[in-house]
Structures are given as structure tokens and as C-alpha cells.
Amino acid sequence: MTRSLAVHAGLLALLLALNWLLPAYHQGNLARVMTLAIYAIGYNIAFGYTGLLSLGHAMFFAAGMYGAALPMRLADLAIGPSFALGLLAGAALALVVGLLALRTAGVAFMIVTLMFSQAFYLTILLLGTWTRGDEGFVIPAIDRQIAGLDLTAADTRYLVAWALFSAALLISLRLVHRPLGRSFVAIRENEERARLLGYDTGRLKLWSLVISATISAASGAAYATLFGYAGASFAGVQYSIFPLLWVLLGGAGTVLGPFIGTLFMFYLIDLSSGITEAYMLIAGVVLVLLTLFAPGGIAGEIRNRLWRALP
Amino acid sequence: MTTPILETRGLSRSFHGLRAVHEVDLSLAPGRIRALIGPNGAGKTTLVSMLIGRIAPSSGRIAFDGQDITDLPAHERVRRGMAYTFQITSVFARLAAEENVALAARRRLGTDAPAVDRAVADALARTGLADRRAETARDLSYGHQRLLEIAMGLAQSPRLMILDEPTQGLADSEIEAFEALIRELSATTTILLIEHNMNVVMSLADEITVLNFGEVLAEGPPEAIRADARVQAAYLGTEPADAT
User: Fold this and answer.
1) Do residues B193 and B210 make contact, with C-beta atoms less than 8 angstroms apart?
2) Helix ranges, chain B (H)
3) Integer Cα distance of A220 and A63 in angstroms
4) In this structure, are residues B217 and B210 in contact, taking their beta carbons and an 8 Å threshold?
5) Is residue A309 less than 8 Å (CB to CB) from chain B?
6) A104-144, pLDDT tens digit by residue?
């Protein structure tokens, strides 16, 4: 526990220090990676730890994004309460969707979550008067101020992203050491057995989905407020697939995996697009190689080969 | 006459018209060891699956501790003090042995970590698995996985423990240790034991229920069952009495 705490605290310290060490381009990238890694952390709670393979998490990300951005745009609400509304929107949506979708499992669960997410995406388009649909809308710089912090400044943005990412990482680390997180793992490993140990697996899966969705919504709300934009593309199918890829690459069911996967994928696309226009080809080959030779993801392989106690 | 800890009335289950269990009346007195025996396909596992709530009965009622539990989900029954160990080993294969047991203990003891640790250490010690606590469950030998199942049952400190063929795959020396463990356990827990090993049944059981074609064929103390001609014809006759 102490060693694992040291590793995670070490990563956070390193990321903090990088704010002053990185050139502006990479500083901006890393702020974005940390913000999106929050999404991956949230997804990992449901998928990596509880075994709930959702193909519709974009709706939770987008619920956070619009839950925060719309009140600012339409009601001139301050950024703090708007952010909180974003979280609330994600949690409430997960509660409703979970109550329905969790009646299914496996492939049916994937399809039901995908359909709900598509319905959510289409609803955003339908309400184009307010959401401006695919085009999206910009949140003016003047609104992106909180407690004297200017979120449009590169340094501030990086540090706020870092703080939110740290919070998500530590919540996730704490959760997997708590009995609640342990019972999620029990469901992932053998739901029938967990049920016959007296765990109300239906209720626990709903909890897992709500926690997962709330963290995902935090990422969406952070993205809107830090980068000043909300658009329907963030609710599309590809934004449901991304966290799955990030988590698989980094290591499902590990605390660090989501961040590693997000960082890896971000720079993989960034670097390969500098080499060729067919950059997705390079990305694809690397993904195939990684799944062939490191099926547990990067952090998963570290756990399997080097350090079994890695949470 | 004490209230039975578990009682069924007319418990039945059909699968597509096939009567797997038919009109079974079962009554378990607290603190006793009851063995449930019968030829393969007699409906033993179907019967206990209904008791724990893995499958719903077609008709009939189940009462635990005087309260009707027929409509309760499995996890509620476990919360009331029933425990079930699987016939086909069903441990958390990728988790450490001690985490398997901790999951069983934690549901009861919640966030009280020291109490969970004590319950885990106790259950592992009683099943002889203390040295293997850190091993991943799937790396344990088959016999040890069976014992881990039982350790998970112990950690729940149930009032009724249902053991579905617990000695299957155990070595003779392990079976002796298992018998001693069950005798010790029966001081505090009622036990319903499905078992094929007649030596184990005859040495452990206070009463035996014989199931044949889904119906109760005979019920009584071991000596009476051993002497029962119908039982011999239906069960003991078709397989050697010492089928181990």
C-alpha cells in the first residue's frame, strides 16, 4: 500500500513539475491528456474493475460537458455551479440508464448502452437551437474565470487539469482498496459467486456505473470549461470507443493504466501524423502489436511480470 | 420440538415437463448434519439450488428459521445466514486465496478491517490453507480449491451451510481433515451435505435423506438407511457402497 501510494504520488509530482519544464506545445497536450485521462479513469471503474463493457460512455462524458456548458451559455451561471451541474447530469443519466441497461449483461449490455448513447447524441442534435449541434459552441474567455484563476491561461489550465486529474486518480486508488471496490472486482471475476456470498450484485453494478459516469462527466465538464468548447462530436460513437481503447492499452483494472493508455494513444497519433497522412495505419499496427504481445495493457503487463501488487 | 432451521413444503421443479424435483418436504433441525444422497440425476443439486435461490421452484415453499424465503433473491438468503459451496469449484480464480476468503468475510463484517483479517486468518487456518494465503486461487491444486470453497463458507459464519459434494477430488488424507472440520463446525452450524462418498456420509451424518427421481425415497439415521431395502435397490445396489 505504501509503495503503491509512493508510485502514484510520484507520478502526480512528476506531472506537476512538468508544468514548468515542458515546452508550450507539450504542456498544452499534457493538459488535454490529463483531462481526457479522467474520462479513462471513470471508464475503468465500470469496465476494468467491475467488468461492465459499456459502448455508450460518450453520453456520460457529453452529459458532463453540456451539463456544465449549457447553464453557462443559456443562464450565465458561474463556472463553479455549472461544473457541479455537469457532474449531477452525468450521475442522474447513469442512474436512469443503469436501471434499464443493467437488466442485460454481456453483448446485450454493450448494445443497449450504445443505443442509449446514440439516442443521447441525436437528442443533442435535435436540440440544436440551444446546443448548436455538430458545430457546437465556444464558451467565451470572460466566463472561464474562477476564484481569480483564468482558465484560458496555459499555466493555470495545466494546473487545474492536474488538480482534477489528481483527484480522480486518488479517488480511484482509494476506491479499489475499499470494500466497495473489492466487491466490484468480485463481480468482474465471478458474479454468481459474489451473489452467493451475499452481495447484492445488481445494486453494486448500478453503483459502479454511477461512480464511473460521474467521473466521466467530470472529465467532460472539465474539457468544456478548460478548453472552452462543447460540441456534439464528443457524444459520438468514437468517444465511446476511445476510453475503451485507452483503458485496454494502458491496462484495464489498474489505477495507472487509464492515464498511460491515454498518453500513449495521444502521442501515438500525434507522432505518426507527423510521419504520414495515413497516420491511423501506424496507430493501428501499434495497437495490434500491443494487443498481441501485451494483452493486459502496459500497466497490466507490468503487474503480471514485475509487480503483482500493483493496484 | 425446536423450530426447524430449514423447511420445505411440496417443493418442486420441472424442466420442460421433466420433473427434476417433485413434492419434496424437507425439515432440518438446528445443529445437525443432514446428508442428501441419491443416484446421479436424482435432483440433489436442483433441490439445493432452489434452497439457496439460484433457481426458482415451480411450486412449493421454503422457510428458513420459521420465515418464508421462497421469493427472496439469493443474496438475501445468504444475508440471513445461509451459505453455499459449489459442486463445481467456483472461486475467484484470479484473486489471491486470502482475498477470496476476505470477500466472504467482508460482506458480513463490512469495513471493520481487523475483524475481517481475523476471520480470514481463522478460516484459512481451519482449512489448512494458511501457508497458501497469498497464492492465486487458480494456481492452487484442485483439492485446495475445494478447501478454499469451504474456507469461504466458514468466513461467512453461516447458520446453515450447504455443501455440494465437498470431498469430490480430495485425497484420503484431506478427507479425514475435512471430516474433522465438519464435526467441529457442526457445533455452531447446521449442515446440509450432498455427498457421494458413502464412508463420509455414514461417518458424518446424523440423518440421511435419500432422493430418487426427484422424490424423497427414504429418510432416517444412517443405520436405518443402510438397512433400507428400497435404498439399496435404488442407490447402493447400483453403485458399490464404497464408491470413492
Assistant:
1) no
2) 44-52, 74-79, 97-109, 113-126, 142-155, 172-185, 198-204, 222-227, 229-231
3) 7
4) yes
5) no
6) 999 999 999 999 999 999 999 999 899 998 889 998 888 88
What would the pLDDT profile of A139-192 be if each residue is shown by its tens digit?
Answer: 888 888 887 888 888 899 999 999 999 999 999 999 999 999 999 999 999 999
Exposure of A121 by Cβ count < 10 A (0-12 exposed, 13-18 middle, 19+ buried)? buried
Mutation to test the B interface, candidates A1, A178, A193, A195, most B Cβ within 10 Å: A193
Q: Which residues in B lie closer than 8 A to residue A198 (C-beta atoms)?
A: 75, 78-79, 107-108, 156
C-alpha cell at A153: 491561461
pTM: 0.90
β partners of residue B208: B35, B220
Domains and their CATH numbers in chain B: 1-81+159-178+189-239 (3.40.50.300), 91-157 (no CATH)
What is the interface size between A and B, counted as CB pairs within 8 Å? 58
**Burial label, A60 (beta-carbon count in 10 A; 0-12, 13-18, 19+):** buried
Torsion of CA A252, A33, A218, A173, to 10 degrees: 40
**C-alpha grid cell, residue A14:** 512528476
Place of cell 442428501: B36
CA–CA distances in Å: residue B213 to residues A280, B20, B77, B216, B222:
63, 7, 27, 8, 21
Question: Does the complex come out with an ipTM higher than 0.90?
Answer: no
